[in-house]
């Protein structure tokens, strides 16, 4: 199976690999795994006071398509509101990277990771202040 040029580009030059402080109250962390293959993706977003994502980082232990999918979404996430980020669909990722059908679940992992990171951020924000 041949990887598309975009997959190879993101795989060889992944954007925004790294870690944000998961304890910071403006950071959301999403950690998801794909049962089919055991690959794991961690995606983090840093959100400013206006509700806009200003930083995104990922670490992916997985296949080339999973790494490319997470690298791509960190680029897409920056500058988006949480609602806009929530609207990113795996199909957008799969199309952009020209993923073959057997690799579509790798883009699903990226969509799930975005949603998990947003949920984590929102849960943190909704927590009552500690007295
Ligand atoms: Fe499972 Fe790519 S093969 S995430």
Q: Could you characterize the architecture of this molecule?
A:
One of its GO terms (cellular component) is cytoplasm. Pfam families: NifU_N. The chain has 131 residues and is an alpha+beta fold. The protein has one domain (5-122): Alpha-Beta Complex (Sufe protein. Chain: A), CATH 3.90.1010. It is 44% helix and 18% strand. The protein contains five helices and three strands. It has a three-stranded antiparallel sheet with strand order 1-2-3. A hairpin with a 5-residue loop joins strand 2 (40-47) and strand 3 (53-61). The protein binds FE2/S2 (inorganic) cluster. FE2/S2 (inorganic) cluster (FES) is lined by residues 34, 36-37, 39, 62-63, 65-66, 103, 105-106, 109.
Concise account of the structure shown:
This protein has 131 residues and is an alpha+beta fold.
Gross geometry? elongated
Helix count? 5
Q: H/E order of the elements?
A: HEEEHHHH
Unreliable stretches: none
CATH architecture classification:
Alpha-Beta Complex
CA-CA gap between termini: 57 Å
Strand order in the sheet with the most strands:
1-2-3
Mean pLDDT over all positions: 95
Q: What gyration radius follows from the Cα positions, in whole Å?
A: 14 Å
GO biological process, one term: iron-sulfur cluster assembly
Family: Belongs to the NifU family.
Protein name: NIF system FeS cluster assembly NifU N-terminal domain-containing protein
Pfam family, one: NifU_N
